[in-house]
Amino acid sequence: MAETTNEILRVEHLKKYFPVPNGMLHAVDDISFTLDRGKTLGVVGESGCGKSTMGRAILRLHEPTSGSVVFDGQDVVAMNKAQLKALRRDMQIVFQDPFASLNPRMTVGEAIAAPLLVQKLYSRKDKDGIQKRVREIMDMVGLAPRLINTYPHELDGGRRQRIGIARALALKPKFIVCDEPVSALDVSIQAQILNLMQDLQDNLGLTYLFVTHDLSVVKYISDDILVMYLGQMVEKAPADKLFSKPMHPYTQALLSAIPIPDPDKPMNRITMKGEITSPVNPGTGCRFAKRCPYATEACTSQDMVLTEPEPDHFVTCLRVQRGEL
């Protein structure tokens, strides 16, 4: 992939394996991409494909098995604990379940203030300074000041997720991994949170890695979209191009499942058949081959290579590489 002066994140050959009784589970297997400042990379795929694990490995919440993560010119994988703690100011995460990620014994104000105290940006004695900063952040994410002394169980899901976003913003980060931040919310609340996140991105220059399984959400919020299948990247392209011209058979099947709000228009849904390849010691070849209608013997006998058949459109498919699809 070409160098860009606006690049903030470069991931190369990232792998994360977990030991299991029968071998190694290949949760993330040889992922490479770049991300520019102020942009959003959406990551989609079926449940269990490794989306969240990849996001956490980039932040080193999971230790990568191998590979390189360079953030703003810094080698994240090579950092010691002190360096990694300092990096937390620039790299943050918003979790999927806003209730599970909040300490039920902490008030809203205490939860937002916690990162400020951990990073020692404020002294515990500076109560006025802390409260002023907390109220600034609450206003930024649309939380009423009167909620500062309430507890998570007293609030609805939308407000809880605003607390999670506020906590991530407390340290003024440059990059945020958004791990399915709206999947646990009602549709109307999802729209509010998505609009809030876009406004924050525009105002603060934030960069997002947005993990989701909701295709309508990822199309709405993303500049580029990365499609994963069983730990591997199968396709990456600008959002409009991916939806208008998907190249990988898995992406085509995934997009064909999007409901069309017109009863007279045919769905043309692609039904995937066959066994799912085990992510434990998966072996050589394309992991989608058992379900792919275009697979040949060559697809199962050699590892797939990431190619760029069109500018900024990357695909991991042997038959696309050969021009057969």
Automatic annotation (TrEMBL):
Keyword field: ATP-binding, Nucleotide-binding, Transport
One MF term in the entry's GO annotations: ATP binding
Superkingdom assignment: Bacteria
NCBIfam families, per the entry: oligo_HPY
Keyword Transport: yes
Name of protein: ATP-binding cassette domain-containing protein
Domain ABC transporter: 9-255
Recorded family membership: Belongs to the ABC transporter superfamily.
Residue ranges of the TM segments: none
GO biological process: one example: transmembrane transport
Record bears the keyword Nucleotide-binding: yes
